[in-house]
Amino acid sequence: MVSRGAKGQRGRGERLTVGGDRTLIGFGASYKPSKSLNFDIGYTHVFVNDSDINQSSTTAGALKGNFEGSVDIVGLQFGWEF
Question: Residue 54: is its pLDDT beyond 50?
Answer without folding.
Answer: yes
